[in-house]
């Protein structure tokens, strides 16, 4: 008998087929007429298939009637057209084999709804719920879409290192990687002697693959990285993780305008793939999590992203008459309340802000002629704020060195990065998209911890 998924069992063209299904019981209901309905789910889709288990089954009284949420079973039977409402097919079981029981008294996922906080404590079981099944199917779809987008455009997928010795860009606090004995580290001149450490120097978990990505872009053309990224920032927000996944394209011979266009096309492509492939899951998010999800995504798929300079954005905020907790002032970074005002109240759609003050941006962003701004861009989305940060890179050796000095960095530490400018330098650009940020935007999930399988945040690394 052919094993099929619940997803395919739910389609009308399976009617008449003898099949095998395997999964977990969501509910069981007994009919007075002497048979039972079992709702079976295997994670292949949101829906369950209804299994009709007849009273004649050998183990009907001894086992079938004891099935409860969480039990795992194998069902053999025929797919028939369903009489019931809301489903096209069901399975007429000829055999129900129980793989494993789930004690009704202790199994946490009973009918009652649980808070997201509670479900986080049960990260080993939350994937059995409708919400998390949907989240992780969408996450898979987005990941596939990311690779497809770049692969179809001829970008090379490169794997940049996870362990790095350069605090690339001062992009945030870094996790140190060491094999030294923290109880009794070797010392030289009263300080920890890192020459005795594994890498013979201080080493960290990467905060970005960009600098290494630039090596590949300035030799092989357009490239992208897609991997785990670490930031030890001690911020307990709904938008920050200590470990997250970042996609970083780096493009040769591309300026900021080209960079913004790729970012826009990229996000639209992800959204249209999700709309095409995850309709049922998105409907669920729209019904249960955030009733603006579907309208936002469909309107975004075909509206142009606005491009607004940082300076104009500051003007808009200053003239808005809105009270903000953080003061709006040219030269300071925008806070999430400002970003949200722009996208949710003022423009009511995603916006790409560009040309930020040089004082608040990293050394590698290309300086403008005005001496005040750099060729930076951030893509802001309603509700989540920044989902992409990027820039055109400074390709002029002298300007780059000067910027490093300005920011208190030692050019010698970046010797290889500088050589990319010394030998055959080119204009190039790139950006970073936080996978979890765009997932928050797509699903409407309020907390970033609920769109990654096992969230790592201050004080929390269980599982
Ligand atoms: P933010 O200002 O939102 O903290 P950032 O400006 O520090 O972010 P970048 O260094 O520009 O972030 O990183 C590029 C992208 O990576 C961001 O646009 C965001 O989507 C994502 N990102 C950055 N930090 C985190 C984090 N701690 N957790 C999850 N995603 C993150
Ligand atoms: Mn940023």
UniProtKB/TrEMBL annotation:
Reaction it catalyzes: tRNA(Asn) + L-asparagine + ATP = L-asparaginyl-tRNA(Asn) + AMP + diphosphate + H(+)
Record keyword Nucleotide-binding present: yes
Superkingdom field: Bacteria
Record-annotated Aminoacyl-transfer RNA synthetases class-II family profile domain positions: 136-453
GO molecular function, one term: ATP binding
Protein name as annotated: Asparagine--tRNA ligase
Keywords, alphabetical: Aminoacyl-tRNA synthetase, ATP-binding, Cytoplasm, Ligase, Nucleotide-binding, Protein biosynthesis
Family annotation (PANTHER family): ASPARAGINE--TRNA LIGASE, MITOCHONDRIAL-RELATED, ASPARTYL/LYSYL-TRNA SYNTHETASE
Presence of the UniProt keyword Cytoplasm in the record: yes
Cellular component aspect of the GO annotation: cytoplasm
GO biological process, one term: asparaginyl-tRNA aminoacylation
Intracellular or extracellular location(s): Cytoplasm
Organism: Blastopirellula marina
